[in-house]
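Quick check before the chapter quiz. The format below is the same one you will see on the exam, so make sure you can read both the input and the output lines.
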Amino acid sequence: MIPFKDNIPSRRYPIITVTLILVNVTVFIYAFSVEPSQQLNFFSVYGLIPVKLYMIGQQPVEVFTGLVLSLFTSMFLHGGFIHLLGNMWYLWIFGDNVEDRMGSIRFLFFYLLCGTLASLVHILFNLGSEVPSIGASGAVAGILGAYLVSYPFARVLTLLPFFFIWVVELPAILVLGSWFIVQIFN
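Here is the expected output.
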């Protein structure tokens, strides 16, 4: 399922949605333009690594500051082009309406809050993980949830590439539900 347009028109230009997409793309380009050894260091510093929580006793200020910083920076990093494209595509399709409804400043804070809460939940369930957690999926999930609550009867034009390419209008709950299912399996 590939959504490409919903039936909810926006009244204003989605400046924060576009800015978030541009920041994510810029960070992605930078992260993948450095040498592989520097790239690993970049993801280790700015990605969220849950096991670092155990190091708080050794260097409390440094570790705490790094963890708090990575709660925000990790949501602007992506592990590959498809990861980036999927998150930014859904943010583009559905974020404009949520931003329109909330207002730009509230939307930005909501996006950051959702990404931060998702990271905190990830830490709770993966305390021993040494793998950097990266991506905007938690923030985008919050935006999609807000979209569904705000527009429960919205419909989305969607490409269905099964044997033939079909363009169908589907209920938003079905399109967004499929996104959440894909996230669970990823």
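If your answer matched, good. The chain is about 60% helix and 10% strand.
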